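// run 5 | inverse folding | seed 20
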């Protein structure tokens, strides 16, 4: 557990130029606090204490402004910068080394109890206000532009911008 906390703090220091000290990140970064709380809620969920997991996740939402369903699967060294308004749905999967900014939604498009939220592969950056909707996959090392609405798969090493989002290979795009 301490190794994961150290990794998370190091990720914040690496990806946020405003992060100056480990202590500042430890005490003041709501995105990290939400992720740490999610790990406990996810543990409760996996151990069939689902009501308690949901209650704990809702309390965390009130404190941090970040709503992560306890069933969502979140990788290592994920960094949620500014945090406020981020929503990660029940069947979402987030890979390692993902960066999200405020107002991001990883949401569903279906009311059926199936995989209905996105899979975000490792190394993805999701800009402020972006909406990634449905059981789609955002490929590794891709970038989702601010306020984009993504409703189709994004290939690895791509940039997706616009409403609805259009994708282009990273080398050909001008963000």
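// decoded
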């Amino acid at each position: 557990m301490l190794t994961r906390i150290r990794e998370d703090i190091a990720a914040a220091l690496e990806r946020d130029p405003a992060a100056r000290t480990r202590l500042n990140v430890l005490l003041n970064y709501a995105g990290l606090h939400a992720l740490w709380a999610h790990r406990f809620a996810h543990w409760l969920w996996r151990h069939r204490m689902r009501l308690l997991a949901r209650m704990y996740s809702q309390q965390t939402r009130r404190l941090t402004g970040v709503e992560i369903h306890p069933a969502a699967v979140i990788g290592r060294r994920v960094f949620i910068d500014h945090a406020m308004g981020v929503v990660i749905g029940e069947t979402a999967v987030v890979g390692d080394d993902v960066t999200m900014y405020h107002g991001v939604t990883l949401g569903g498009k279906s009311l059926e109890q199936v995989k209905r939220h996105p899979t975000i592969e490792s190394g993805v950056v999701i800009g402020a206000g972006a909406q990634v909707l449905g059981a789609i996959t955002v490929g590794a090392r891709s970038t989702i532009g601010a306020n984009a609405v993504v409703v189709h798969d994004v290939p690895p090493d791509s940039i997706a911008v616009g409403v609805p989002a259009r994708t282009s290979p990273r080398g050909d795009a001008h963000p």
